[in-house]
């Protein structure tokens, strides 16, 4: 049970230097951003959520969305020529399954990925229902961070179902979106990394990623799918949520004969996706870009 509680807490991406209580107090409501090009994802696992989707901000440049009940695939505007076929990367943000860190692990990463010559999509998957108000949302976060309240881990199943639907949709619309259907990968952060791993382990033929990235996600040994795709993983040694986990997952990946690249940074905390800390973890994106090129996924 103690191990499960630690795993639950590990799914939430928060700044490494902020105390949980201070972080929750700093969350403020914010207007819903302008609509972006998106496609509704088919709901294969219905879930009732009477609350309304809402946005909040952790800091002025870091927004969160919660009570997501209608999963969507956000199509990031590409700088590539309209008819240029390219690999696709689907971003899967984290947030403890209670919210999605849309700037830190979505929009900000999408901007950087676009420069590598890939088509970028963001999976806006369903989140766990929380009270229908900013105060209710903050209370839910406080319970999670400070009181260790149980989290409905079945929401991971909804996140996986939505991510699988997103992969299927990108492949189905490969010609429309000028995507190379044989190069569709996913990159997940925190709870999104756990979703990414579970999606890969499901090994569904039509929803199997061709390459996988996990940033500050689980590292302990677990099932490796048959003919596992190339894996890139990065985490900081002082990640307070995963600090007690071993690295059996990467050994098992290697033992299966699949490609794996793992970066263990000496510092960086948790949630460093688009938040430089002056630590070696700041290099994760450049190393991910080199990995994409070394594996023949991109040419830039």
UniProtKB/TrEMBL annotation:
GO terms for molecular function: hydrolase activity, acting on glycosyl bonds. Residues 1-18 form the signal peptide. It comes from the Bacteria. Keywords: Carbohydrate metabolism, Glycosidase, Hydrolase, Polysaccharide degradation, Signal, Xylan degradation. Gene3D superfamilies: alpha/beta hydrolase (3.40.50.1820). It holds the Pfam family DLH. GO terms for biological process: xylan catabolic process. Residues 157-278 form the Dienelactone hydrolase domain. The keyword Hydrolase applies. InterPro entries: AB_hydrolase_fold (IPR029058), Dienelactn_hydro (IPR002925), GDXG_lipolytic_enzyme (IPR050300). PANTHER family: AB HYDROLASE SUPERFAMILY PROTEIN C4A8.06C (PTHR48081), PEPTIDASE S9 PROLYL OLIGOPEPTIDASE CATALYTIC DOMAIN-CONTAINING PROTEIN (PTHR48081:SF6). This is Putative xylanase. It comes from Novosphingobium subterraneum.
